[in-house]
Amino acid sequence: MHKSFLVLPLLLCASPAFAQEAPPAIQLPPELTDPAAAMQMARTVQALSTALLNIRVGDMRAALEGRDATPVERNMTVGDIVRRNDPDFDRHMQEQVATVGPKIQRSMRAINHALPELMRDVDDVQRSVERAVSNLPDPSYPRR
Fold it and tell me: pLDDT (tens digit, 9 = 90+) per residue, 46-83?
């Protein structure tokens, strides 16, 4: 009788649920959490924003207004139009781009921290959906 009290906990620990290995911790690839990669993304954002600001839009603007573009308008860029409304646009843009790298780093750290819990929640949802689907009636079962 006393032996059964000692053996029972061991039998419970030997169940298949305990025999399963814990899933590996899910993390973002190191390329996304590396500070150098975040700074490279910031430089890419800077290059893209510069490229977009240098797109010539004077001909298109004149065409939308139903007229031919003047020689000055032909060389007008998106940046020229934006700078009319904000003379300090370049400085503001540089300030915003300078904060991109640190923001990306903080975001990746937060995502990396939240990812395991998120994946557990996704697994819980998947199990719930599987249970719900398993309780659906079989469409091939004859109706009475």
Answer: 889 889 999 999 899 899 999 999 998 899 999 998 89
The string of pLDDT tens digits covering residues 109-139 is 888 888 888 889 999 999 999 998 888 887 7
Q: If you ran DSSP here, which 8-state letter would residue 20 be given?
A: S
| 18 lies in some domain | no
Considering the domain boundaries, does residue 109 fall inside one?
yes
Domain span at residue 65 reads 26-131
Q: Within a domain: residue 39?
A: yes
Name the residue type at position 135. Answer: N
pTM over 0.85: no
Q: Count structural domains, the chain.
A: 1
Which residues are CB-contacts of 81 (< 8 A; sequence separation ≥ 6)? 57, 61
User: Is residue 90 within 8 Å of residue 77, measured between CB atoms?
Assistant: no
Integer Cα distance of 86 and 69 in angstroms: 24
Torsion sign (Cα): 40, 41, 46, 48:
positive
